[in-house]
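User: I'm putting together notes for a lab meeting next week and I want to include a structural view of one of the chains we've been expressing. I don't have a solved structure, so I'd like a prediction I can at least talk through. The sequence is below, exactly as it appears in our construct file.
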Amino acid sequence: ERYIVDALSVVDGVARMWGSGMRRPAMRIWVDPKRLAARGLTVTDIEDALRRENVQIPSGRLESTAREFTLRTNTGFQTVSDFEQLVLKRGDDDYLIRLGEVADVEFAPENIRSYSATDGVAGMSLGVVPQSQANLLKVNSDVTKRIEELQSTLPADIDLSINIDNAMFIRASMKEVAKALSLALFLVLVVIYAFIGTLRSLVWMWSLR
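Assistant: Thanks for the context. Below is the predicted structure for the 209-residue chain, given as structure tokens.
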């Protein structure tokens, strides 16, 4: 989004870019209803605890004669263990009920329904949508060149490749049209030669056209 998408979006004739399989990282909390009910808690209690505890709090300023710094207390949770230790409620005998007791916490993709792969290797799919009046073949050529330029600037473990090329159908259609026109021209010459009988006359008549 920050580099490849922007670089391809500015190619002449490109209207927009779309992507799938991005699998943005997120902390996912899978609540167990039975464990939750056994401790007299609800999903709302978990939501309230997250909003209350997983925050970053301003802590004032640090001033000097030449500089001023804004201080901030970083109380946000970063790891699975941090979330598991979140206190939801104080139970009997001052026992602290924590999130890890009623839910399974994992660091996983935000959207697990979207998945993209090439030759079995997980990746991200990007689609290029051309402008309505753009020359599709030119856009295709320019995007291909831009991809080659980008590849040389990427880390070695990141590979850009073209998996679907709709312009190939247009090229194939143009080749078929050229073949049909060539065949029609050949047949016309054959018919003319059959009636005239000599190659010189055929060339002379064709020069008059």
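A couple of points you could mention at the meeting. Strands lie at 14-20, 25-31, 56-63, 68-74, 87-90, 96-98, 103-109, 117-118, 121-122, 125-130. The two ends are 58 Å apart (CA to CA).

User: Perfect, that's what I needed.
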